[in-house]
Specification:
single chain, about 90 residues, two-stranded antiparallel sheet, 4 helices, about 55% helix
Amino acid sequence: MIDIDESVGNSILIFASLDKNKDRFLSFDELPGYDPNRLKRADRDDDGKLSVGEVASDRVWEFFEADTDRNGVVTFEEVRVYIIKVRSPRK
């Protein structure tokens, strides 16, 4: 199981590893293969790049979406179901 602190901490570590030019922002071209709709959702100030705060905020949002039983932790199964849900075409 993963709690919110672990989830957000992991997103910050990933952010740091992807920030190749170390400018403390992730431009969309630093994120090839990521869903452009997800990037736009995370880009709260619509400046075309992601700050660490935007990434962490988006991870919090996703965590609570995945935590279907609302017990403050996500299991592998909850994450698996969440990923299937967000990847499936919306009707």
